[in-house]
């Protein structure tokens, strides 16, 4: 597990995010939602405001998690398809937990990801919503306090 800082590594993380999004999340989104997500990950100012971590096997990035700089909100959390159900997502989440002292974390979970977040201890804060064509549930986890 390591922080992703340089431009090339961030570009690789964004490519992993996009490819995985298209495989698993885009089928639940309208064209507007797909374009809104693409615009989000293409926004250099937004990306520069995030902290990224990656799980690597040698030089291969297997999964990534990105949070806002105060580490309270998860903005992107993706694992390559062939590495699903191998504990990589949990390891990324636990790395975020262990590298931060916050007590509550939030995420806008896509329909595909809601069961994953439930397994990690997140609970719904709202019913499903749609904004800019993107479907999500606002969820939260109480972090270290409840562990």
TrEMBL record:
It holds the Pfam family Acetyltransf_10. This is GNAT family N-acetyltransferase. Residues 8-141 form the N-acetyltransferase domain. It comes from Candidatus Merdibacter merdavium. PANTHER family: ACETYLTRANSFERASE, ACETYLTRANSFERASE (GNAT) FAMILY PROTEIN. Gene3D superfamilies: 3.40.630.30. One of its GO terms (molecular function) is acyltransferase activity, transferring groups other than amino-acyl groups. It comes from the Bacteria. Transmembrane segments: none annotated.
